[in-house]
Design a protein that fits this description.
The complex is a heterotrimer of chains A (95), B (497) and C (484). Chain B is α/β, with parallel strands linked by helices. In chain B, the strands form 2 sheets. Chain B has an 8-stranded mixed beta sheet with strand order 4-6-5-10-11-9-7-8, with helices on both faces. In chain B, strands 1-3-2 form a 3-stranded mixed beta sheet, sandwiched between helices. Chain C starts with a strand and ends with a helix. Classes of the chains: A alpha+beta (95), B alpha/beta (497), C alpha+beta (484). Chains in contact: A-B, A-C, B-C. At the B-C interface, helix 10 and helix 11 of B face loops of C. Chain B: It is an enzyme of class 6 (ligase). Chain B: InterPro entries: Amidase (IPR000120), Amidase_CS (IPR020556), Amidase_dom (IPR023631), AS_sf (IPR036928), GatA (IPR004412). Chain B: Belongs to the amidase family. GatA subfamily.
C-alpha cells in the first residue's frame, strides 16, 4: 500500500516536522522504498506467536514511595530556550 | 610512545609510576590536537577537564588509592550525558545542550578514576552505519586502501569512538550499539568492541535511540582492554527499569580462560548471497582458529536471520519516533520561533534534525499510526520473538556463535549513501543479536585485499560476556592482528598512503 | 427513575458513560521521585525525569500501584496480575516527553461495579469497564503574559487513575449519584481525595441519545468537567442538543466537546483537522507490571470497611432505617461520628439528632464534620442527659444550640442555666394547681366533656415549669388531678 504525498504530510504533521512540497515528494519515494522492503515480513507466519516484550527480565521493579528528587528549578530550567521567571515560555496557546 | 600503549599497559605503567596520568593524558590530547582536525573523531575535546581529572587521579594514586580506571584517559561517545560538558548526540537540535547530570555508565567510569578526553562523533542520534549523518561533519576512517587516499567511513554509529581508538587518540572509548553501532565500526576500524547483553549497562542518562535495543559497551584495541572497560561500565542501576540485577563478573580474568571444549555454532543463514569471498575465507579461517583452540564446531540454523533487518527497521524507527518527541524546543535544545506552538514545533524539528533522523521518525510514526500498528509494529515484535527463539534454541546446543561482523570492509563516503536500504544492509549480521538482546563481540581478524581490516563476530547467550571474552581473546591470539591504520598518532597526517 | 426527553416523534432515552481521572494519593510521582504534593513553587516538584531530559528513564512507584489495586478491590473489580504500560503519543507544551505513559491494552484493573442509590431509594448497579494508571500532565498558564503561555511541570507525572464506566447510566441524576458514590469509595480507601475543585478528580462524560430498544447512536465526549453539578448540567444540555439534531433529520457527529457553565451549553473543540492518532505502543522503558497474588491478597485484607458494607452493618447493628444509614455512610468521618455517639446509647435517637440538628448546625456554620462545633462525645453527653431524665427532649434542643454557640458540654450548660428537669411531684402539683386556678373556664369546659383540652393543660403546666417539667410526670399528675 504505497503512501501518497497527502499521507506523507499527515505523518509529518503528526510527528511535528515541517516539510516542504519538494521534501514531501522525495520522502514519499524514500518511505515507499523502505515500506516496500519491510513488506518481506508478510512471508512469515506468526500465528500464535506472542510479541516480544522486553528481552531478559520478566517483571517490572517497583520503587518505594519516597520523595528523592525535585527542588532543582535551576537545573530544570538550565537549558530552556525561553523562560519567564520560574516557567518555561512558549507562544501563547489559545484553547 | 604512550599513545601506542594498550589500556592495560597504561594501567600497568600508572601503577608502576612509569608515567603519570597527566603525562599520558597530555600525550593523547596532543595526538587529538594533531589529528582530530582531519579525522573529526571528536565533537568536543575537554582538555581542561581531562587535565584536571588526570591531576586528581595522580593525587589519588599518590595517596594510595586505587581504581579500576584510575588515571586512564578514555573517549566518550557524545550520546552519554556528561555533567557540565556539552552533549550533542551529533544533532543540531542539541548543539548547545549541557546536561546537569552524568549518565549511569560514565558516572561509574568516573567513580573508577577514568579521565574523559572528550566526546566522540557519531551518526546523529546514533542512527546510521557510516557517521555521515552527524551534524558536526563526517568522521574519516584512519584506514586507507592500499595506494588510495580516498576517504573511507569509519562505520557507525560509534564511528568517532572507533576512529579515535584506531588512530591512537584514545586507548579506549565508550560506544552504544542499537543494531550494530559498536561492532560494525569496530570491524571497519580494526579494533575490538563488545555489545553486552541488553540490560548489562545502565541506559540512564544515555540519549535514547531505540530503548528496547540500545546498549552501551566498550571499544578498544584489545579484547582485554574491552574487558577492563566493561567491568567499570556494567552494573545494576535502580534508575533504569530494564537494567539487570546481575553481578558483574571479572571480565578481565575471563580473557585468560581457556575456551577448550566450548561448542561453537556456525549459523548457515549468515552465508548471505553476495558475501565477498574474502569475508567467507576469513570466517573459515576463524573457524579453524577456534577448532585449533580446542573448540567443537557445530552447524546451526537461525531461520529468521534474514528478517532481522526488516524487523529492526520497523521497531527501531517506531521507538525513535516516540523517544525523539521530547526535542521540541520547549525545555532544552535549539528552538526556531513560530507564530504558534505547532509552528514552533514544526520549524524547530525541521531545522534541528537531519535527513536520516527525519526519515526514521516518519517511518516510525507511520508504522505506529492507526490502522498500521498491527501490520507493522505488532508483526515486527512477533517476528522478534521468533528471532529470540532462534537464538534460544541455538544456545541450547552451542555455547557461542561465530559469524562475520559486517558484509564488507569500510566503504567510501558517498558509495552507498544514495540509497537508505543499501546502507541499512550493513547491519545484516549485527542486527539479529540486537533484536534478541544477546551479547556480541567483534574482533579484528585480518585485512582484505586492499588492506582494510575485517572483523569476526562472536555471539553468546544472555549474560554470556565472559565466554565471549575468552573466545575473543583466543581469536585475537590466533589472528595476531597488529596492523595499524595509515592515520595515527605520531605519524604526520600527510604521510598516509 | 426514568428520565426521558419527550418529542413529537416519541421519547428519547439517554445513554451516559463516565471516564473519571482520579489523582492518586502518594508521596512521590508515578515514575519519578519528585513530590506529588499539591502546590509548591513553579517547577520545584520536578525532576529531570518529569521534564523529560535526554536519557531520563521512568521507575514505577509501588504505592501508586497499590493505590490502584486498592481502588480496584473497592470497586469489586478484577485485579490483573499482569498489565503493561503504553505510550500515548501527542505533542503539547505541558507534556514534556511528547508522550504520556498510560495503560492502553492491558490495564491493571478489569471489570468492576459501583452501586448507586437514587432519590426514590432505589438502587442500581453501574458497570466499571476498567481502571488504569497513567501520568498527569503539567500546567499551561495562559494569563500570565499577553503573548506567551507559561509552563509549570509540578503536576507532570503525578499518578492518575482513569476509571472508565460502562455506558450504563440513563439520567443526569444517575451520573451524579455514580460520581458521588465513586468519590465516597475513593475517600474511604484513601486512594484519592476526590477534590473536584482542585482538579484531583475530573470527569469526561460520554453522552448519546436513542429511542427505546435501539442500539447505541453516535456519542459525544464532553471533556474535563470539574464538578458533579456541571456534569449533570452538561448531560442535560448535550442530550437536548443531540435530540434536536436527530429530530431535525440530521445526524450527530462523533466529537469532543467542552461544557461552558456560564452559557449553559457545550461546544465542539476546535482543530478537528488535527484528528488525534495517539500511536499507542508498549513503553520499551518499562517491563510488564507483574503483581504477586500474595501482595494483592494482603492489600485486600487491609482494606477498610467500604460504604455499602458499612451501610448494611449500621442498619443491622444499630437498628436504624436504611435511609439514615446510607446518609451517614456517605462520608467516612460522619459514619465514625455516628458510631461514637450511638455506642451504648439509643442509636435511633443518635441518628435523628445527627441528621436533624447536627447537620442543620453544620450547614448553618459552614463547617464539616471534622471540625463540628459539637463533638461526638459532647453530643453523646447530651443524649445521656436525656436518657437519664436530667433534661427532657424539648430542653435538649435549647441545650444543643447553646453547645453550638459556646462549645461547652451539655452538663455544664444544664447546670449553668438551671435546666434540670423538674421531677419533684410537689413542684409539679403546685404548677397544676396554679394552672387550673388560672383557667377555671377551661376546666369547666373539660369537665363538660371537651377532652382535648387535656393537651392545653399539659402545655400550660410545662410552661409554668419553665419547660423543665418531666413530661411523663406532668401527664400522670395532671391525669390524676383531673380524674379526682
Amino acid at each position: 500500500m504505497p503512501l501518497d504525498t497527502a499521507t506523507v504530510r499527515r505523518i509529518a504533521r503528526l510527528a511535528r516536522i515541517g516539510i516542504t512540497d519538494d521534501e514531501a515528494g522525495r520522502l514519499q519515494g524514500e518511505l515507499n522504498g523502505i515500506l516496500g522492503w519491510v513488506e518481506q515480513l508478510s512471508e512469515i507466519d506468526v500465528e500464535g506467536v506472542q510479541p516480544l516484550s522486553g528481552v531478559g527480565q520478566a517483571a517490572l521493579r517497583m520503587r518505594e514511595d519516597k520523595v528523592t528528587d525535585g527542588n532543582k528549578v535551576d537545573a530544570v530550567l538550565s537549558n530552556a530556550p525561553e523562560r519567564a521567571g520560574p516557567f518555561f515560555a512558549v507562544p501563547k496557546v489559545v484553547e | 610512545m604512550l599513545t601506542d600503549l594498550s589500556l592495560a599497559d597504561i594501567l600497568k605503567g600508572l601503577e608502576a609510576r612509569s608515567f603519570s596520568s597527566v603525562e599520558v593524558t597530555d600525550a593523547f590530547l596532543g595526538a587529538i590536537d594533531a589529528l582530530n582536525p582531519r579525522i573529526n573523531a571528536f565533537i568536543t575535546v575537554d582538555g581542561q577537564g581531562a587535565r584536571a581529572a588526570a591531576a586528581e587521579a595522580d593525587r589519588r594514586r599518590a595517596a594510595g588509592e586505587a581504581g579500576a580506571l584510575l588515571g586512564v584517559p578514555v573517549a566518550i561517545k557524545d550520546l552519554f550525558c556528561t555533567e557540565g560538558v556539552r552533549t550533542t548526540a551529533a544533532s543540531r537540535i542539541l548543539q548547545h545542550f549541557v546536561p546537569p547530570y552524568e549518565s549511569g555508565v560514565t558516572a561509574r567510569m568516573k567513580r573508577d578514576g577514568a579521565v574523559f578526553l572528550g566526546k566522540t562523533n557519531l551518526d546523529e542520534f546514533a542512527m546510521g552505519s557510516s557517521n555521515l549523518t552527524s551534524a558536526f561533519g563526517p568522521v574519516e576512517n584512519p584506514w586507507k586502501r592500499r595506494g588510495d587516499d580516498a576517504v573511507l567511513v569509519p562505520g557507525g554509529s560509534s564511528g568517532g569512538s572507533a576512529a579515535a581508538v584506531a588512530a591512537g587518540l584514545a586507548p579506549g572509548a565508550t560506544g552504544t550499539d542499537t543494531g550494530g553501532s559498536i561492532r560494525q565500526p569496530a570491524a571497519f576500524c580494526g579494533i575490538t568492541g563488545i555489545k553486552p547483553t541488553y540490560g548489562r549497562c545502565s541506559r540512564w542518562g544515555t540519549i535514547a535511540f531505540a530503548s528496547s535495543l540500545d546498549q552501551a559497551g566498550p571499544m578498544a584495541r584489545t579484547v582485554e582492554d574491552c574487558a577492563i572497560l566493561l567491568g567499570s561500565m556494567a552494573g545494576f542501576d535502580l534508575l533504569d527499569s530494564t537494567s539487570a540485577d546481575v553481578p558483574v563478573p571479572d571480565y578481565r580474568a575471563a580473557c585468560g580462560a581457556n575456551p577448550r571444549g566450548l561448542r561453537i555454532g556456525i549459523p548457515k543463514e549468515y552465508h548471505a548471497d553476495g558475501l565477498p569471498a574474502e569475508i567467507e575465507a576469513l570466517w573459515r579461517q576463524g573457524i579453524e582458529w577456534l577448532r585449533d583452540a580446542g573448540c567443537e564446531i557445530v552447524d546451526v540454523s537461525l531461520p529468521h536471520t534474514k528478517y532481522g533487518l526488516a524487523t529492526y527497521y520497523i521497531v527501531a524507527p517506531a521507538e525513535c519516533s516516540s523517544n525523539l518527541a521530547r526535542y521540541d524546543g520547549v525545555r532544552f535544545g535549539e528552538r526556531v520561533p513560530g507564530e504558534d506552538l505547532i509552528e514552533l514545533y514544526e520549524r524547530t524539528r525541521a531545522a534541528g534534525f537531519g535527513e536520516e533522523v527525519k526519515r526514521r521518525i516518519l517511518i516510525g510514526t507511520y508504522v505506529l499510526s492507526a490502522g498500521y500498528y498491527d501490520a507493522y509494529y505488532l508483526k515486527a515484535q512477533k517476528v522478534r520473538s521468533l528471532i529470540l527463539r532462534d537464538f534460544t534454541e541455538a544456545f541450547g546446543r552451542v555455547d557461542a556463535l561465530l559469524t562475520p561482523t559486517a558484509p564488507s570492509a569500510a566503504f567510501a563516503a558517498g558509495q552507498k549513501f544514495d540509497d537508505p536500504i543499501k546502507m541499512y544492509l550493513n547491519d545484516v549480521f549485527t542486527v539479529p543479536a540486537s533484536m534478541a538482546g544477546v551479547p556480541g563481540i567483534s574482533v579484528p581478524a585480518g585485512l582484505d585485499a586492499s588492506g582494510l581490516p575485517l572483523g569476526l563476530q562472536l555471539l553468546g547467550p544472555h549474560f554470556g560476556e565472559e565466554r565471549l571474552f575468552s573466545l575473543g581473546a583466543a581469536l585475537e591470539r590466533a589472528a595476531g592482528f597488529t596492523h595499524r591504520p595509515a592515520l595515527r598518532a605520531g605519524i604526520p597526517a600527510g604521510a598516509a598512503a | 427513575m426514568s428520565y426521558e426527553i419527550e418529542r413529537a416523534t416519541g421519547s428519547w432515552e439517554l445513554v451516559i458513560g463516565l471516564e473519571v481521572h482520579a489523582q492518586v494519593i502518594s508521596e512521590s510521582k508515578l515514575f519519578s521521585g519528585a513530590s506529588a504534593s499539591y502546590g509548591g513553587e513553579p517547577n520545584s516538584h520536578v525532576s529531570l525525569v518529569d521534564a523529560a531530559f535526554p536519557g531520563m528513564l521512568p521507575v514505577i512507584n509501588r504505592e501508586c500501584v497499590a493505590q490502584a489495586v486498592r481502588t480496584g478491590l473497592g470497586l469489586d473489580a478484577r485485579v490483573n496480575l499482569e498489565s503493561r504500560f503504553d505510550r500515548k503519543n501527542y505533542f503539547y507544551a505541558d507534556l514534556p516527553a511528547g508522550y504520556q505513559i498510560s495503560q492502553f491494552t492491558h490495564p491493571v484493573i478489569g471489570a468492576g461495579k459501583v452501586e448507586i442509590e437514587l432519590a426514590d431509594g432505589s438502587r442500581r448497579e453501574i458497570g466499571v469497564t476498567r481502571l488504569h494508571l497513567e501520568q498527569d500532565a503539567g500546567k499551561s498558564l495562559h494569563d500570565q503574559s499577553p503573548d506567551s503561555s507559561h509552563i509549570d511541570l509540578n503536576r507532570a507525572g503525578v499518578g492518575l487513575m482513569e476509571i472508565v464506566s460502562e455506558p450504563d447510566m440513563r439520567s443526569p441524576e444517575e451520573a451524579g449519584a455514580y460520581l458521588r458514590k465513586l468519590r465516597t469509595i475513593l475517600r474511604y480507601l484513601g486512594t484519592c481525595d476526590g477534590n473536584m475543585e482542585e482538579g484531583s478528580m475530573r470527569a469526561d462524560v460520554n453522552v448519546s441519545v436513542r429511542k427505546a430498544g435501539e442500539p447505541f447512536r453516535t456519542r459525544c465526549e464532553i471533556k474535563n468537567v470539574n464538578s458533579i453539578r456541571f456534569v449533570m448540567q452538561a448531560i442535560e444540555v448535550e442530550a437536548r442538543r443531540q435530540v434536536a439534531i436527530w429530530e431535525s433529520g440530521s445526524a450527530v457527529d462523533q466529537e469532543t466537546r467542552l461544557f461552558d457553565p456560564q452559557r449553559g451549553e457545550t461546544r465542539a473543540l476546535r482543530s478537528k483537522e488535527d484528528a488525534h492518532d495517539y500511536r499507542y505502543f508498549p513503553d520499551p522503558d518499562l517491563l510488564p507490571l507483574v503483581l504477586e497474588r500474595e501482595w494483592v491478597d494482603r492489600l485486600r485484607a487491609e482494606l477498610p470497611e467500604l460504604p455499602d458494607a458499612k451501610r448494611r452493618r449500621l442498619a443491622e447493628e444499630y437498628g436504624i432505617p436504611d435511609y439514615d444509614a446510607s446518609v451517614l455512610v456517605a462520608e467516612k468521618p460522619v459514619a465514625a461520628f455516628f458510631e461514637t455517639v450511638a455506642k451504648g446509647r439509643d442509636a435511633r435517637l443518635a441518628s435523628n439528632w445527627m441528621l436533624g440538628d447536627l447537620f442543620a448546625a453544620l450547614n448553618r456554620t459552614g463547617r464539616g464534620i471534622e471540625n463540628s462545633p459539637v463533638s461526638a462525645e459532647s453530643l453523646g453527653g447530651l443524649l445521656d442527659l436525656i436518657a437519664d431524665g436530667t433534661i427532657n427532649g424539648r430542653i435538649a434542643k435549647d441545650v444543643f444550640e447553646e453547645m453550638v454557640e459556646t462549645g461547652d458540654g451539655a452538663g455544664v450548660i444544664v447546670e449553668r442555666k438551671g435546666l434540670r428537669q423538674v421531677t419533684d411531684s410537689g413542684a409539679i402539683d403546685a404548677a397544676i394547681e396554679q394552672v387550673l386556678g388560672a383557667h377555671g373556664d377551661k376546666l369547666a369546659e373539660f369537665r363538660a366533656g371537651k377532652d382535648k383540652l387535656f393537651g392545653f393543660f399539659v402545655g400550660q403546666v410545662m410552661k409554668a415549669t419553665g419547660g423543665k417539667g418531666n413530661p411523663a410526670l406532668v401527664n400522670a399528675a395532671l391525669k390524676a388531678r383531673l380524674a379526682s
